[in-house]
Records
---
Amino acid sequence: MPTNCLGDCFTVNLFGESHGECVGALVSGCPSGLPLEIEEIQKELDRRKPGQSKVTTARKEEDIVHVRTGMFEGKTTGMPIVLIIENGDVDSSKYEEMRTKLRPGHADLAYHAKYHHRDHRGGGFSSGRLTAGIVAAGAIAKKVIGYFSGINIAGYTKAIGNLEAQNIDLDEVEKNIVRCPDPKVAEEMVKLIEKVRAEGDSIGGLVEVIARGVPLGLGGPRFDNLKGALDRAFHSSGAVTAIEYGRGIGARYMRGSEFNDLPYSLTRKLPSFATNNSGGIQGGISNRNEIVARLTIRPTPSIGKPQKTLDVNYEAVSLVISGRHDPCLCPRMVPVSEALMAITLADVLLKQRAYEKF
Amino acid sequence: MPTNCLGDCFTVNLFGESHGECVGALVSGCPSGLPLEIEEIQKELDRRKPGQSKVTTARKEEDIVHVRTGMFEGKTTGMPIVLIIENGDVDSSKYEEMRTKLRPGHADLAYHAKYHHRDHRGGGFSSGRLTAGIVAAGAIAKKVIGYFSGINIAGYTKAIGNLEAQNIDLDEVEKNIVRCPDPKVAEEMVKLIEKVRAEGDSIGGLVEVIARGVPLGLGGPRFDNLKGALDRAFHSSGAVTAIEYGRGIGARYMRGSEFNDLPYSLTRKLPSFATNNSGGIQGGISNRNEIVARLTIRPTPSIGKPQKTLDVNYEAVSLVISGRHDPCLCPRMVPVSEALMAITLADVLLKQRAYEKF
Amino acid sequence: MPTNCLGDCFTVNLFGESHGECVGALVSGCPSGLPLEIEEIQKELDRRKPGQSKVTTARKEEDIVHVRTGMFEGKTTGMPIVLIIENGDVDSSKYEEMRTKLRPGHADLAYHAKYHHRDHRGGGFSSGRLTAGIVAAGAIAKKVIGYFSGINIAGYTKAIGNLEAQNIDLDEVEKNIVRCPDPKVAEEMVKLIEKVRAEGDSIGGLVEVIARGVPLGLGGPRFDNLKGALDRAFHSSGAVTAIEYGRGIGARYMRGSEFNDLPYSLTRKLPSFATNNSGGIQGGISNRNEIVARLTIRPTPSIGKPQKTLDVNYEAVSLVISGRHDPCLCPRMVPVSEALMAITLADVLLKQRAYEKF
Amino acid sequence: MPTNCLGDCFTVNLFGESHGECVGALVSGCPSGLPLEIEEIQKELDRRKPGQSKVTTARKEEDIVHVRTGMFEGKTTGMPIVLIIENGDVDSSKYEEMRTKLRPGHADLAYHAKYHHRDHRGGGFSSGRLTAGIVAAGAIAKKVIGYFSGINIAGYTKAIGNLEAQNIDLDEVEKNIVRCPDPKVAEEMVKLIEKVRAEGDSIGGLVEVIARGVPLGLGGPRFDNLKGALDRAFHSSGAVTAIEYGRGIGARYMRGSEFNDLPYSLTRKLPSFATNNSGGIQGGISNRNEIVARLTIRPTPSIGKPQKTLDVNYEAVSLVISGRHDPCLCPRMVPVSEALMAITLADVLLKQRAYEKF
């Protein structure tokens, strides 16, 4: 793929810096004539924005999206859409130390080695703040797949540490600040996060994303594999250490006779499956089951505890990070992960249309 | 990406069918002047070929590679390299039933729905046999990354079912037929596979792939993320249900203060890390640690037991698959996974060179 | 674009060498279920093959195409199609001198400088012989655009030297060996080429390619411009020094009031144009007029006359090229140019389908 | 290529509308650490901006560029660079008629048919105004190729109508308002344009662009051909009807013995050529000669004279365009063409570096 590009037909490019002027995304190849309200994009951004609850970073950002191009009289024109979110609460003073010190667990060292000249303020382009552009682009992608195909996407925090949702009630997800579909477990999660934060530490978790109403036939074999396309999107967030589909790591323990999803005929035109162990994708192609992806989210790299690290001259130094950070990334990774799945599905949906009428 | 294409600089396209004339790969963008012996490619193919042991399929294929273009007097010319492996043991009679019956767990149903006209014999292009082309292309990629950068890649079967290697001794891997780096566990694995095969069933496992000697700076941020590029390659095999890097799914349980890999200075020019929880990739970019990827491999979909499924008219039918199949894919997925990592690293290595002298 | 790749949906990769084992093409993303006879491909190759008349090279090649993958029971499967043409008349002895001497007007010097290790025999991958793969792939593309859209493509030699067709009768094109649509001028052209050949020289000309029946809306604005896509294809031949659309270089002398193609309504649903000065493409998008592209073809670089040049050590040497060469490339560039237009239109036709139902 | 994307390593995406909020470009893959002054970008934009002389449109735009991302302390960071030019003089009232009427010679009809929902105000994304983003991105590309390779690019108006520069003195180009390198002919050109404008008409011309100091080896064979890459860029402007390299259309009349550029040895390491008929590119690869591209520019489609056309219901209507337009595009196409060549060369220069050290 060309540098900084996701997708072939429906494409997204990102831009911006954590403590620069703005962050955002360029969406190209969106179908024309799609009715789109800024509120629909803003609603998704509000789910991602910092400072939304006591378990997220205290950075104050309104994250108002500006749709600067590609819209005309309330509808998309099919031309490139520039989405810009101006940075507001840009206090870079706390980052002055990072001009020379490389934060452990972050991209700082790799960026320093690869790019030399580096915007050290909050990680620049590598900051989690860049996911605002992803979420904004994803809101348009959600609209595309919903409007033209009926696909809808739902994400939630499945686990934090060893606390795991026991019941999945999607209606509960947005009712608690950790976005857990199990309200009881959600309460425990909040307590755990608060405890971890008080210790100056952070914690990992699991985010699950589901696409429902996916038509048969999206994706392709081999290098056009839908799982590969999704993974490429998911890994743009920087915080993902594992991605599973369907039974995921559990497939290791299973027999073929257990794992194989047996198809049956719902109607004469619509096959269905008794199980969904493969997570909705077989041979790289969607099979009409729900697509189920599960992302392991690493603990936030920025922590309050002092850490040993290197400076830009590769000398040993000690570092205490005093910026504002999420003690657990999961609650805000939910809308980000949904957006990345939506962007990928919008692209493969368009590509499938290129062929489906033949 | 264009259809059927992996990579930007060093690219691979696949072709062929399980029971057609041949399988193979086209490699483009390989640097010129690389000394390359056909034996180097053949050696890798021999590790993948069917019938190599009692735990693999009984299909008899010599899998002799033909390098038809792109070489001149023992060296690559920089021009496209066509690698062809002729099919030999093509007994399609056992597949006649699959002309109408869609094998559960395979791509058959998705292909039928997406492409309508389908080569049913052994799955056609969706067959695991296509990974021969991957392994052949990967042999060239291994040569590229070894010759120009010193990267070498090692894969092994880490687990089958609930049997897991306790000691990792890379010298042991090729000494046993399951390619397990722990000889004691290897013996148990062989027994388990034989038991599963006797039951007409199959079993899943874990394959781990490691790249050593990786320079700092391969990959890029966001959509140019090296994990995303690797995943896109790995998922081309069709049998992968989860991909982890470093601590992978274990990151969920960790605190940031545990997970963060603390850098220290090996020498003034070469940073190193006390741990490798992030699996050698931070912010999408290689950090000089070993790249550690772990693939969950699903149990082989083709099993001897009778299964309920649909035919091409979506009518319920019963199916007994009488072809020859691997009861566990892991042993042969080891060279395939290595090849996919090598291809990806060859590509990002070239791309990095575009920038590194600036 | 990835190395060696043309197209996004319908893609072509080339491979082979002039005096290696074979030449050919890999076609990916061809729609499935397309009925395709090898004869349809062979017929196009026969139009391009060497030795077909007294005005072409004397190299004897049957140029039999082998469709090695991607077909099943007479129809495409949607999977990659490998087209291979074995080299027969490979007499490399005449090229031994070119191991060190760089032929003027050819890619030899640029290849030597860029790739160092070079297949000097007949130019290797840079040989005009590689256009056999283009023509074979183009035959499939022609089938795609004809079957699914009704587009058909016609090319012809419009001019050789200062001889220019005065009447365009497409039925005449294949009736004369220069493929000129004006039989009278064709006779003069043959004489001119024979005269030039007798002098040990070569001559240039004009090839025009026309696509009829093109639907409204193929291509896109700016970087998705259809003229840009076509040019990228046309320049793969190596012999093109100028590409014009519609009035082409004549547009320079025109007023806007003359040049603008005025639309009128053929029927209420189908606009038409009084003129076709823009060659069927406006704002990068097909406008339902014929697409008219005109390629200036340089005189063949290989000539019998002695020439001064350099060797691989950049020492001055003299060279007499004794291989067999076309004194004028136009007659054989006709099917090649048609193929390149067909490949490009097949790709944009598929891409347009991705959007057209919205 | 993905939608709306030019380049692979150094990439450009465009956005904006003629009468929307802004126009601009996103540049990705620019090397980090490049010192860059906004003035350097602004200087190029000033050469393109409207209202700069009596022979250009009267639209008043300051065209101030804002570099919103990708820069830090005066240098590029290697991260995406957003360049935005706010629209100022947006008087859309004159375009209300074009809501339903499709302007002849423009993309209006093709856009209407392809996208249905269309920003009719000044052509939206298809407007020549979008070339401001190209010029801004090109200024960065010029910096890249100059800083890292010594390539510099010069463009000029070679001809308008039948007036053609007889002497090429590059120092004269910016001294006259038509950017003609021959001051005497420049005066006649100004008179011709004024005459044409007075008639409510427009006129075409020729723009030539030259790259000097190009290293050996940029580009590649076949589909990686440098001429194809350049053409794809040039055609993004929308006003180009023919592109020639070196002798261009003149090659038709030449013998091979005349056309072949004979190499000689300037020094032992640097070949040179007695002539430059091939325009600096052989076999798709730069040969160290100047790259010489010549673009035929059609007469401006917007003219003051009444024209017959269709409305969006394909009913016949008459149209008088009362907006402000350039009577000849050449003077402003000079910086645009330079920018497109610079962007393409920056990309192939980076790609060449991927291979050159091997």
---
Amino acid sequence: MAKPIFPAFDPADVAETNVTTYPEPFRAANSRRWNRRLGDHAGLENFGVNLTRIVPGAQSSARHAHARQDEFVWVVSGEVVLETDEGAQTLRAGMCAGFPAGTGNAHRFVNRSSGDALILVVGDRTPFEEIAYPDIDLHGKAGADGRPAFARKDGTPYRAGASARKLSQPPREGVA
Amino acid sequence: MAKPIFPAFDPADVAETNVTTYPEPFRAANSRRWNRRLGDHAGLENFGVNLTRIVPGAQSSARHAHARQDEFVWVVSGEVVLETDEGAQTLRAGMCAGFPAGTGNAHRFVNRSSGDALILVVGDRTPFEEIAYPDIDLHGKAGADGRPAFARKDGTPYRAGASARKLSQPPREGVA
């Protein structure tokens, strides 16, 4: 079959990234899922669509609940464990899950299988979002663009903490 | 594998419907695609997610362009032809397409194969939407709920037309 022509495309042609905006010490746990930002690639602005590849042992995100943004996940391939307040359940390709804003029921997807799991994740960009993380000392808060900045639950910024550590242990020369 | 527990679910457990809000004479052409409203089933409000089964020879919708709402389509199984202003192209499972609001580039999906095609369709519900249909005398306009009502391009309501026909040719007794 011929290669698709824009606005259609093959997700494989969109670069994968494991970038996370989580602060330390949560970055490593969130860096073994690889996102292809399909919605951004297509020029969509009202919602995001990520094709997320979760390697064995990794998570899609820390367990979280959105206050204002809806989320929907479609399992494309592999097996993935969905963890919510009700516990854990394994989902296979062709199953799906929806997470309405404001329920307080936090979720994450974890790959406990021996192969990659692929999920399609859709979330809107309603402004002034708040994201609760029941399992770790993290809270996300978004402004008008709907993209969250993170802090501790008491509101203390994690950047200040990193800066304090930097003062007590300066980086070696040549290390950024 | 165990049956998924809400908020996860098997799309097969959501009823299929071929309901269309198109007015006559466009209803028949739009009644051979079957939707499972996965987003509504999950309780999502900010965007819709439909799993759409297009039978051979049928279309997902008339070719249309959104003014304010973004749309994203993931091909789940089968083969489907995407028609846009640039022409037609065949897409297979695992390919996708995005339709940003406001481009004016109209699209529809048609099944020209001999088997069912299954696509996952995501669209947000930005209010005061307008939908242009370049190929037929139809225009969609939504209010605050983002759900379109249809009229002719000159603004004449199709319902009035149906009512006028009713006057000139009254229904037989016992026919609703």
